[in-house]
Amino acid sequence: MRPCDRVGCERFPCVDVNHTGYHIPAIELDPERVSIILISEAAPTHMVDGYYAEGSSLFAQTTMQAFNDAGVATTSIQDILDLGVYLTTAVKCSKTAYGIQTATIEQCSQILADEIALFPNVKAFLLMGDVAIKAVNSISRQAGLGRAIPAESTYKIRGQQYYFRGARLFPSYLQAGPAFFIEKSKRKMIAEDLAAALALAG
């Protein structure tokens, strides 16, 4: 199964993202084997930097570093997939500015909802950064379940237990892209969250 064959955007209504940077993972995988979904912010500005791009892409490098920090030796994205971890973004187009409008996150969360529904055995969601947290909260509200995670700073809500459709939610910090190299103070917390999700998924 390739997620890009099952879900997608047809109208492209969002005005603050680059539609030429639209991307949904085209990786071939068995949805039954996915136990963790890691959701980061947005598609990269350049597709060569994406999670599943060939070679040593930026998203791949920083994500592998995060898993290595968590005590899990990885040398490729395939190693992470083999752990039962699927990597995707909350917003499927690349950013045009530092931030992303709430309306865009909510619009794209409808695609994300369809995407995560492809995986029946998910035990944990790693929400890497504010955009991912907002997207899952939007999905939860659209399902009539209210906000899944409180509107608080990430450092205040980390480590507490939140759930969505029976799966544990881990609010964390963005691990993909150049910011990960800069904000080294957050690497320890990211590693703790990854390790906890992996332990839960077993």
Give me the secondary-structure topology.
Layout: H1 3-6, E1 17-18, E2 36-43, H2 58-69, H3 77-82, E3 85-95, H4 102-116, E4 124-128, H5 130-142, H6 154-157, E5 162-164, E6 167-172, H7 179-182, H8 187-201
Parallel strand pairs: 2-3, 2-4, 4-6
Antiparallel strand pairs: 1-3, 5-6
Helix pairs in contact: 2-8, 4-5
TL;DR?
The chain has 202 residues and is α/β, with parallel strands linked by helices.
Protein model, in words:
The protein is globular, with a radius of gyration of 15 Å. The mean pLDDT is 94. Helices cover 36% and strands 17% of the residues. Strand 5 and strand 6 form a beta hairpin. The relative contact order is 0.19. It has a single domain, classed as Uracil-DNA Glycosylase, subunit E. The chain contains eight helices and six strands; from the N terminus they run αββααβαβααββαα. Helix 2 crosses helix 8 and helix 4 crosses helix 5. The protein is α/β, with parallel strands linked by helices and 202 residues long. The longest helix has 15 residues.
Cα distance spanning the termini: 23 Å
Per CATH, the superfamily is Uracil-DNA glycosylase-like domain
Average pLDDT confidence is: 94
- How many distinct domains? 1
Tally of strands: 6
Number of helices: 8
The CATH class designation is Alpha Beta
User: Biggest β-sheet, characterized?
Assistant: 6 strands, mixed
Which fold name is given in CATH as the topology? Uracil-DNA Glycosylase, subunit E
